[in-house]
Amino acid sequence: MTSHIQKVAQAAYKLFSRLGSDLKVSPSHEGLSEIARLFSQLRETDVFEPNSKLLYRDKKLLPDMDEHEAPVTYIPIWDDKVLTLCMFILKKGSRLPMHDHPDMYGFLKVLHGSLTITSYSPCLDPSPPLPTSLAARFKYLPVKPLGKKTISASDDCVVLTPESGNIHEITAESEPAAFIDILAPPYDSEGRPCTYYSVIPNRYSDSNITYLIKIPSPPDYWCNEEQYTGPDFNLHDV
Ligand SMILES: [Fe+2]
Questions:
Q1: How far apart are CA 229 and CA 51, in angstroms?
Q2: Distance, CA 116 to ligand 1 centroid (Å)?
Q3: Residue 185, preceding bond cis, omega within 30 degrees?
Q4: In the UniProt record, does the keyword Transferase occur (predicted)?
Q5: What are phi and psi of 151, to 5 degrees?
Q6: Which of 51, 65, 102 shows the shortest CA–CA distance to 229?
Q7: 100 alpha carbon to ligand 1 midpoint, in Å?
Q8: Domains and CATH numbers, the chain
Q9: Span 120-135, pLDDT tens digits
Q10: Residue 137 C-alpha to ligand 1 middle, in angstroms?
Q11: 159-190, pLDDT tens digit by residue?
Q12: How many whole angstroms from 101 Cα to the centroid of ligand 1?
């Protein structure tokens, strides 16, 4: 029997493998909607064993998180030139710092607990620049703030595109929170690197524009890696 995770992964692989790695051709709206529909139906039990140690061992650590434990667990599921499928488990209060998804499509589905996502879109139109004195000090990126949204396992997946919502910070609001990501095309250190950002607080920001600067990976963020234990599948046969 085809597992639900396999169904979603196959649908995404079919759509994105036809487009080539540079995505010069955009995926169809119908194709993206179908992946979002299937992904929104994915549940914790589709990918984690009952009482999975990966999820439930964290409860024992709360509220006093062991300072030596990584705040985030990364679980790779699939990664090739077409797409990345992976999961993250965040301990309470931990976060994936603000980062981008350059020229990528992304689907994020909460599987356990709840998360707050603060999102921004790239400014596609020429945007008002910072005054020269500030611009000289910072190599800044103007972005459009989309606000904060708290989502839980009962909510539909979040979809981001190269034009919308592809810079975000993700914070765990609950007991361990877990989510699963489909990213296409995948990150690539040469062409599509993952960059971290911080907001430049200044009086020129408003509800339409925020200025970000690139930062190194913040010291409060690091991951340990665990093995995926859900249903097996192979997308190369799709
Ligand atoms: Fe992300």
A1: 12
A2: 12
A3: yes
A4: no
A5: -130, 150
A6: 51
A7: 7
A8: 4-228 (2.60.120.10)
A9: 998 877 666 666 666 6
A10: 27
A11: 999 999 999 999 999 878 999 999 999 999 88
A12: 7
